[in-house]
Amino acid sequence: MPADLTSIEALDTRILNLCTRINAATYELLVMIREFDERGGCLKWGLDCTAKWLAWRCDLSMATAREKVRVAQTLKHLPLISAAFATGELSYSKVRSLTRVANEGNEADLVAFALRNTSSHVAEYCRELRMGTPGSIDIAERAFAHRSLRLRRDADRGMLSVTVELPLEAGELIEKALDKARDDGCLEIPDLVDTSWSKRQADAFVTMLMEYLQGIESRETKKSSDNYLVNIHVDQSALAGEVGRSSVPIETVKRLCCDGQTVVMTETKDGEPLSIGRKSRVVPKGIERAVRARDKNTCRFPGCCNKRFVDIHHIEHWANGGETALGQLMLLCSKHHTLVHEGGFRIEKDFQDHWTFFRPDGIAIPDCGYHARDMLDDDIRYEDIVHEGHGERYENPPRGGLLSAVEKLVNEPPPPRYFH
């Protein structure tokens, strides 16, 4: 080794010493920032906070400036962390994490933990401490409120950029799904092993979307796992309207069975399984397409235009002898599907084969909304209450029948669970 070339060991020592001095100098800087903040030094330059002064005067980003002011003020009440920081034993990265959770009761333990662990471990440990406090609900609410997904098309490059921001727990689900899609792709296509990591991630993302669009039926030919299968135990007698057992409300079971994947499980009275049938779709794909085409993929509930999250509903449930036929099926969105099954609403066919929806109080729901005439008894003329052109009205119009029922519904609405 040339005489003028510094050894690796010497460089290691010099870098470590310099980092220690930088840590100590950073503590000194924060002490001065705290004093500057408490004395209102920013006002001399016409600014209303120290963070803005730091961003302007010291060429920092606003996020970095705010964080330095926060840490500087918090250290005032943490003598043990301040002492370790002043000697350079703790880095600014560790101190920044510690000041988010430290208090008089846990400061000593946190300093001991920080001195024997890396900065990343300290950050993770402090994050877990924050999540374990009642105040973490604010963190969760802020994360949920800032969720977003943006698509940007670049026609010149023939590319589409997808930017997603989600709460951490939702992001973990995406990561797990990408891992599975990527690993399955590697097993099926060996050539992917030679593809870069980012390209494999992109391929896995597309695979996830294709699997979702293809639906459960197309995936039945592939290897699947019962980890994603929910079993609901219910007696056949309960489905038929008789007394029986069910692990969830029976109308909820009927709603789930209308348009879902089921495993038929027959049991004895003691709960012993006799046989387990194969997984099958209650509504065949061909009939489903016909129903969606007829209903224009829109909820049939009067006044509802929802085209998303629509389910196929058995008007007469199959457990009561209803057929899985085009004339016995209609599309309902998740909200109105729940209202029909669990909310007391019902559907009946008139003599013209027209389906009519009824509210829990028995009042029919017209296709085009209620008219003022609908609010009157049969023996009261609409013309007697409102004279067009004169504006004459009864001060206390007669009430009864449908009018009373409507007023009662307005003044005493159904339980909140009926509506979303």
Number of domains: 4
Low-confidence runs: 221-229, 272-281, 385-403, 405-410, 412-420
Distance between the termini: 76 Å
Helical content class:
40-55%
Overall pLDDT, averaged?
76
Report strand %. 5-15%
Number of helices: 16
Number of strands: 11
Based on secondary structure, the structural category is mainly alpha
Radius of gyration: 34 Å
Biggest sheet features: 3 strands, antiparallel
SSE order, as H and E?
A: HHHHHHHHEEHHHHEEEEHEEHEEEHH
Query: How is the largest sheet built, in terms of strand order?
Result: 9-10-11
- What shape does the CA trace take? elongated
Layout of strands and helices, then pairs:
Blueprint: H1 8-38, H2 50-57, H3 62-74, H4 79-86, H5 92-98, H6 107-115, H7 119-131, H8 136-145, E1 148-154, E2 159-165, H9 168-188, H10 197-219, H11 236-239, H12 250-258, E3 261-262, E4 265-267, E5 273-276, E6 280-281, H13 285-294, E7 310-314, E8 329-333, H14 334-342, E9 346-349, E10 355-358, E11 364-365, H15 382-385, H16 402-411
Helix pairs in contact: 1-3, 2-3, 5-7, 9-10, 12-14
